[in-house]
Write a structure and sequence with these properties.
The chain has 343 residues and is α/β, with parallel strands linked by helices. It folds into two domains: 238 residues, P-loop containing nucleotide triphosphate hydrolases (Rossmann fold, 3-Layer(aba) Sandwich); 100 residues. 32% of the residues lie in helices and 20% in strands. The protein contains eleven helices and 13 strands. Strands 1, 2, 3, 4, 5, 6, 7, 8, 9, 10, 11, 12 and 13 form a 13-stranded mixed β-sheet that branches. The chain is globular.
């Protein structure tokens, strides 16, 4: 079903028309909700430290998680003590909740099926405190009470969570797919209208700038810093070393992400020839998914690796990538944070 929607969202076909009444109702509700916050009918909760929101206006993968990781790592390099809040998409055991329903993601014991794959990946990769809750203000309050040294909060996938006041809004756009057929959910991929991008502080375009993005402050992002990591023993190899090792071998690439073909194409550009096998986004892997008896090597995304670690064998590797952002973005972000401190 998800794959069908993905196809329909890229064209103006029968599927888009079928759901158009629901799409118009969704657009009306989201517009009224944002207008209510802007008019002061609802008051967002404001933290005592700056809040950076990273999100998107479409559903599906845009490269938001690599951007969140890049921002957190940048802040750490510049002397900040960041913390992250996210919604989480798992089914967290009740023993992990605090009274307000907020959960801290401890990387050494958190599992993707309970906490969500993105929060677990961020916690493990960045080594910063990560708290999850559908109630973003509650998550930030718990974060700051538990880890008072945090001096900046990054809200992952928080663009539409208006109950949390934000000091910097960053939207991530897929430079290839952009906005699909331009229609709101469920007829199209849009959570909010494209015009929403005029109001954010910056737009990061995954794959390069685009004249179809209505923002005067946009930054091109590329994926780079590629390293192949062995899932079992964490051995690392460069793309050239891995491609040499994979020559003549039966290689299967698996991806449980929104746009798996992008990962498969990325491997080809790195010189790795593999047969692709796509799973649904946020797929919870089972041991049977990874048997792949005909594969001598199995390669996956880092997000998939978080969920496959329990089934690791000697054939399995993942590709670790980083969002490469221009120096101008760093200057923009640090200037905004310096302005907050001055105020």
């Amino acid at each position: 079903m998800g794959a069908w929607f993905e196809r329909e969202w890229q064209r103006l076909g029968g599927g888009a028309l079928l759901f158009l009444p629901l799409a118009l109702a969704f657009r009306l509700l989201t517009t009224l909700r944002r207008a209510a916050y802007r008019a002061g009918l609802f008051k967002p909760w404001r933290a005592k430290v700056p809040v950076i929101v990273v999100g998107n206006i479409t559903v599906g993968g845009t490269g938001k998680t690599p951007v969140t990781i890049a921002i957190v790592e940048l802040l750490k390099e510049r002397g900040y003590t960041p913390g992250v809040v996210s919604r989480g998409y798992g089914s967290v055991p009740s023993t992990e909740h605090d009274p307000s329903g907020v959960v801290r993601v401890f990387p050494e014991r958190a599992t993707p099926e309970h906490f969500g794959d993105e929060p677990v990946l961020i916690a493990r990769r960045c080594e910063v405190p990560v708290f999850i809750s559908p109630d973003r203000p509650a998550a930030v309050r718990a974060l700051l009470q538990t880890v008072p040294e945090v001096d900046v909060v990054v809200s992952d996938d928080g663009l539409q969570h208006y109950a949390l006041a934000r000091d910097v809004e960053i939207a991530v756009v897929d430079g290839e797919r952009l906005f699909g057929n331009g229609l709101p959910l469920p007829s199209g991929p849009l959570r909010e209208p494209v015009s929403r991008l005029r109001d954010v502080d910056a737009v990061i375009v995954n794959g390069g700038n685009s004249d179809r993005v209505p923002s005067e402050r946009q930054f091109a992002m590329q994926l780079g810093g590629e390293t192949f990591v062995h899932l079992a023993d964490r051995e690392q190899r460069t793309p050239r070393e891995f491609a040499t090792m994979a020559q003549g071998a039966s290689v299967v690439a698996i991806a449980g992400i929104a746009h798996p073909e992008r990962f498969f194409s990325h491997l080809e550009r790195l010189g790795v020839r593999a047969r692709g096998r796509a799973f649904p986004d946020h797929h919870l892997y089972r041991a049977g998914d990874l048997k792949l008896a005909d594969a001598q090597l199995v390669v996956m995304t880092e997000k998939d690796a978080v969920k496959c670690a329990a089934f690791a064998d000697t054939r399995q590797w993942f590709l670790r990538v980083s969002a490469v952002l221009p120096p101008e973005f760093e200057s923009f972000l640090l200037d905004r944070l310096h302005g907050f401190q001055a105020a």
